[in-house]
Amino acid sequence: MAFMFVALSGILFTSCKEKSTEEPTPISISKATSEFNSDIATRWTDLQLQLIKSTPGYAPPVAARTLGYTSLALYESVVYGMPKYQSLVGELNGLTSLPKPDLTKEYNWGLAANAALSTLITEMYSTTNDANKRAIDSLRRNIENAIRVGVTNQEIINRSNTFGSEIGKAIWEYSKTDGGHQGWNSNFPTDYKVPVGIGFWEPTSPSQKIPLLPYWGKNRTFSSSNMTTNPAAPVAFSFKENSEMFKQAKEVYDLGRALTAEQKAIANFWADGANTITPPGHHFNIANIILKKEKVKLDKVAEVYAKVGMAVNDAFVACWRGKYTYNLMRPVTYIRQAISPSWSPLLTTPPFPEYASGHSSGSGAAAETLTSIFGANYAFTDNTHTGKFPDRSFKSFYEYANEATISRLYGGIHYRQGNENGQKNGKDIAKNILKLKFTK
After folding, report:
1. Which of 185, 247, 213, 226 is nearest to 353 (CA)?
2. Nearest to residue 201, comparing CAs of 327, 331, 345?
3. 67: Cβ contacts below 8 Å, ≥ 6 apart
4. Which end of the chain is more exposed for a tag (fewer CB within 10 A), N or C?
5. Which residues on adjacent β-strands are paired with residue 374?
6. Which residues of 209-244 are buried (b: 16+ CB within 10 A; e: fewer)?
7. Distance CA 399, CA 379 (A)
8. Strand locations in 337-410, DSSP E?
9. Which domains, from first to last, does the chain contain?
10. How does DSSP assign 343-377, residue by residue?
11. CA-CA distance, 117 to 133, in Å (whole number)?
C-alpha cells in the first residue's frame, strides 16, 4: 500500500508540474463577432462599389484585387471573436504574420472591423476624387458613432480601433508584394511589346494599341495552388472552314446576326463595362443581396466576403495569365478577316486578348463559393441594375453563372470555348480557396 501511495503521489506531482508549465490558451472575454450587425461591413461594400465606378484605373482585375484584400482585412479584424474560425496567417500565399489582439483584454469587434476597412480602403482608393474621400471619412465616423452608443469604456474603444487600424495597415503592406500594387496607375504599360503572330490578338480600336494589364497574370494569388490552376488550352488556331476554330467563330457570327430580344437583354445586363461596378463588383453585389436577404450577422459576412473576394481575385489573375499566354485574337478580328469584313458585335470589344473570359472566370468562382455556403438550390433576384435594366431571377448560383457566361457569346466578344473553359477554371480556383483552413 505504501508503495502504491508513493507511486500515485509521484504521478499526481508530475501531472501538476506539467500542467503548471503549460502555456494557457487565451479565451476571449469580448462580445462575439456574431453579436454585431452585418451592416458594419455591407455598408462599406456598398460604398466600394460606388468608388469602383468613379475611381480612375479601376479595371475589373484591379477591382477584384481590392475587394479581395479589403475582405481579408475584415476577416482578420474580427476572426478572434469567431470561436470556430482562425486567422489565415500561414494559410495564404506569402502571409507570414499579422498583428494579434491581447485576448486577456476586451475588444469591440465592430469597431475593429470599421477601423480595418476604413484604413485599407483609404489606401486602396487613394487616387479617387475628393467627394469620394469625404464619403470614406464620413462612413467611418457614422459607423463608429453608431457602435459607440452604449460603449462607455474609452480603453476598449481605443484598443479596438488601434487593432483594426493595425490589421488594415498590415494587409496593405501584404498587398504591396503581390505584383499588382497600385495597378490602377498602370492599366496600359507603355513598355509592353505586343506579340505578333498568326491568330494573335490585334487591337480592336485604333485609339488603344496596348492591351489592358498585360503583366497581371504574374500576380501572386491568395492560394498557392492557384498560381498553377489554369484553363485548358484553346483549340488550335486556324482559318480553315473545316477547323474547330472556324466553327467557334462562325457560332459567334451567326448568333450575332439573329439575336433575340432576350439574348440582347442578357448581354446588356451582364456587360458591366466602363464606369460601372465591373464584373467583380457585380459578383460582390450578388453576395451582398444574399447576405441582406438572410439577415446574417457580422461573422457570416466576414466569412462570405473573404471566400468570395479571394476566389474572384484569384480567378482574374488566372484568367489574365491565360490571356497573355495564348494571346488569342478576338472574334471581331477573326470574323472580319475570315467571314464578313463588315460584321460588328453587339457589345464593344474590350482591349485585351480573348482567352479566357473574365466574366466567366469570375462568375464561376463566385457561384462555386456561394453554393458551398448557401446550397445548390438557392433562389434569388439580382437587382444590381434596378432603374437601368429589369431585375433578373435565378434558381441557383450556378444558373446565374451560366447566364453571365453565355452573355459574352451573345455580346459577340468571346468564343464559346473562352466562356466555358473560363467558368470551369473559376470553379477550380474557388475550390482551392475553400480548401484553406478557415476553421480550427
Report:
1. 213
2. 327
3. 45, 48, 280, 281, 284, 309, 312, 313
4. N
5. none
6. ebbbbbebbebbbbbebbbebbbeebbebeeeeeee
7. 9
8. 380-382, 392-394
9. 33-175 (1.20.144.10), 188-434 (1.10.606.20)
10. ---SSPPPSS--SS-HHHHHHHHHHHHHHHHH-TT
11. 14
Distances, alpha carbon 131 to alpha carbons 50, 90, 112, 336, in Å: 11, 38, 25, 44
Query: What is the rounded end-to-end Cα distance, in angstroms, of the chain?
Result: 45
pLDDT reading at 24 higher than 70:
no
SS3 content of the chain, % helix, strand, coil (to 5): 60, 5, 40
Q: How confident is the model at residue 45 (pLDDT cuts 50, 70, 90)?
A: very high
Q: What pairs with residue 297 in β-bridges?
A: 37
Q: Are 234 and 326 in contact (CB under 8 A)?
A: yes
Residues 429 and 318: beta-carbon distance below 8 Å? yes
Q: Looking at this protein, which amino acid is placed at residue 68? A: G
Residue pointed to by grid coordinates 463595362: 273
Q: Report the residue count for the chain.
A: 440
Short-list 397, 395, 393, CA closest to 368: 397
Give me the percent of the chain exceeding a pLDDT of 70: 94
CA distance 119 to 123: 7
* Cell numbers found for residue 434: 475553400
What does the alpha-carbon distance between residue 366 and residue 364 come to, in Å, rounded to a whole number?
6
Question: Over pLDDT 90: what percentage of the chain?
Answer: 93
Q: Average of pLDDT values for 266-285? A: 97
Model pLDDT for residues 354-374, shown as the tens digit of each residue: 999 999 999 999 999 999 999
422 Cβ contact partners less than 8 Å away, ≥ 6 residues apart:
231, 319, 322, 356, 357, 358, 359, 360, 361, 364, 405
Measured from the Cβ of residue 56, the count of other Cβ atoms closer than 10 Å reads 10
Q: Look up residue 227 and give its three cell numbers.
A: 498560381
Task: Tell me the C-alpha distance between 95 and 97, whole Å.
Answer: 6
pLDDT at 16 over 90: no
pLDDT at residue 9 greater than cutoff 60: no
pLDDT grade, residue 150 (50/70/90)? confident
